[in-house]
Amino acid sequence: MGISRLGFIAGLIWFMAMDWQVLCMAQSNVHHYNFVLKQAQFTRLCETKTMLTVNGSFPGPTIHARKGDTFYVNVHNEGEYGVTIHWHGVKQPRNPWSDGPENVTQCPIQPGKNFTYEVILSDEEGTLWWHAHSDWTRATVHGAIVISPANGTTYPFPAPYAEQTIIIASWFKGDVKAVIDEALATGAGPNISNSLTINGQPGDLYPCSDKNTYRLKVNSGRTYLLRVINAVMNEEQFFGIAGHSLTVVGQDAAYIKPITTSYIMITPGQTMDILVTANQPPSYYYIASHSFSDGAGVAFDNTTTTAIFQYNGNYSRPSSIPLPVLPVFNDTAAAENYTSRVRGLASSDHPVNVPQTVNRSLYITIALNFLPCTEATCINSTRLAASMNNVSFQFQPIDILQAYYRSINGVFDADFPSEPLKYFNFTGNVTSINVATGRATKVTMLNYGEAVEIVFQGTNLLAEMNHPIHLHGFSFYLVGHGKGNFNNETDPKSYNLIDPPEINTVALPQSGWAAIRFVANNPGKGVVHPLSLGKALKLGHGHCSHREERQNKVTKYAPSSGVPAVLLLVLCNIASEANDCLIKI
């Protein structure tokens, strides 16, 4: 993953150097890629294992496009089980069939089969990513999406000398499918990762790792654009570079007012665009990342991954490499200090269009719960599950989008509660509260064009912890967040309705709340789910009936067919994908 110079010539045909099997053919504003899901061997932490990858690489290939482009990805599954791919943060206007969450918008791509995704970019500009949306396959099947400005436009900041993608991820010594299968069998939470990685390598602080530590080579005096992606399964991350200031200019493929800082806090699923200038004495400096986890008694990967920010030139290698000074793992104040500074750019070229009033409101509690389990392998006859408004998502034998399109009854109920059925002190002492939940397939129907506000409320059931939450098919504005229980009379007075950041993944603070707003203007089916609730388990995942040829179905969402009266908001409360239990619309 070498540094790529900016300023691409219009009409240039890009070929991915990461893997010769990737075909990226740029013709006008359409690109084509081939992804081959296959097993490959990797050695990390002194041990060799086989794992599922795309084109044999970890992380997988980077997709390059420009704002407004379309790309097609033909995914060939040469693995051993069904998989889907999700294009995290891509709105996919009127194209829900290619969004990717299994059993929601499509059935898994079975071994020996292939499926071509049509990925339509609209106003996204910056960095996004793609990943498997099946069980825990996301741990090894993921990669970056780099969206450059449209031809004839440029960045809202001085063009950097070069750019580089930085992907922070989890590494498990064992097979990730075996990890989640064991958790499903026992009803307990899955094991934590054995290390973190930067661009596929753990770094110098882990055994048997220093020879392959990732190196970012830079020229003195030059400014670089780092596209940072948190692909970690469960943990938010502090990230920094020793001796160097970071200027954050984008988040989730939207520009923000520049933030100069010594560290960032990035939640699973989020991306950040960061400018860094090589303005220190030529030497080696560590790039480092470790987890932020402020939940009492919550297991997490408490290790540090490193890469090397290495200056080009002739000089003596330092005897020791400095580490950045990052906040300690449970420094809630440091995390809040960073996230509270994020503001949308709100310029004439990149405006903020947050709804000033809303005509649809949802208040959704996020919790960890127990479900009864009669299987002999379950511990204490219970199974860990995630819930929203005390409903844990139940998969059906037919994908929900197909059921909606074909008006198939009995697949889902359109009665997801718009508020908790039972109110209590969500962030207080909950020892007397029943932690049991129930399973159902429920959706919320949204009228096209509605201005929607969702307030996510954290709870202390089973564990006090933060939850990354992702919305499919939309970006949204984070208008407010805070600690404790949301007060619908006083808290809205503190909303930022001037320059809130436009994002697709939000960090719901531990024992706190977060309020988002968006316009329901993308017909189809959207999914909302907490990423870290992937610690809970996927339930009711059975055979999915494959839909027929989709060509005649897509017209339902095409402009020529008119605007449907409603959209579906599917609320997934599963711990199926560790950090990817989000809302889709």
TrEMBL record:
One of its GO terms (biological process) is lignin catabolic process. Transmembrane segments: none annotated. Its cofactor is Cu cation. One of its GO terms (cellular component) is apoplast. Residues 38-150, 164-314, 419-529 form the Plastocyanin-like domain. Keywords: Copper, Glycoprotein, Metal-binding, Oxidoreductase, Signal. Residues 1-26 form the signal peptide. GO terms for molecular function: copper ion binding; hydroquinone:oxygen oxidoreductase activity. Pfam families: Cu-oxidase (PF00394), Cu-oxidase_2 (PF07731), Cu-oxidase_3 (PF07732). Belongs to the multicopper oxidase family. This is Laccase.
